[in-house]
Amino acid sequence: MSQSMNGMSMEEYEDYLKSFDEAFTAAPVPERGNYSAVPDGRYQVFVDKAEIRTNTNTGGMELSMQLKILSGEYQNRIIFHRRELDNPDRMSYLRGDLEVLGMGDVQRISQLPSQLKRMLDVKLEVQVKHKPNPNNPERPYVNVYLNKRLEERGDTQDDDRPF
């Protein structure tokens, strides 16, 4: 009998989930929309997810962010933004992104894992640009640039204005 992390066995999970079998069987499979990349342009987004993970292509470490579009025709669509973490030639791009995210105070890359939560819900203006991929013309490269952090109402500090 195998144990899961919370102490329940696989058999106990199966027994519990049996009560949902009918609902699962009756549930329709949702239609899949067109999940192609958003077109070139500027978008207002917020950071919905940020994690450090292994890049599936290179095997190196990367910062991966999911940016959710706030409004317009592409509202709620996801833009993926990644930065290599173990390539010294790319560190300036990472530092620039951290500055835009309001995290210019991160002094060492080793601090980044403990600071990821600070990225969440930050609102940004980003620019998406597609570039031809000579190895696979049907899948162009998608470059995402963090242009600026968007100010939120109520973020201004008291500045002695009477109103």
Verbal overview:
The protein is an alpha+beta fold. The protein contains four helices and five strands. The chain has a five-stranded antiparallel sheet, covered by helices on one side. A hairpin with a 6-residue loop joins strand 1 (41-54) and strand 2. The longest helix has 10 residues, at 91-100. The protein is globular, with a radius of gyration of 21 Å. It starts with 9 loop residues before the first helix and ends in a 14-residue tail after the last strand. The model is unreliable at 1-5 and 153-163 (pLDDT under 50).
Principal-axis shape equals globular
Oligomer: single chain
Major sheet strand order? 3-2-1-4-5
Uncertain stretches of 5 or more adjacent residues: 1-5, 153-163
Overall average pLDDT: 85
Order of secondary-structure elements:
HHEEEHHEE
Task: Give me the number of helical elements.
Answer: 4
> How much β-strand is present in the residues?
25-35%
Cα gyration radius (Å): 21 Å
Secondary structure tally: strands: 5
Which range best describes the helical content: under 10%, 10-25%, 25-40%, 40-55%, 55-70% or over 70%?
10-25%
Strand count, sense and closure of the main sheet? 5 strands, antiparallel
- SSE class: alpha+beta
Terminus-to-terminus distance = 68 Å
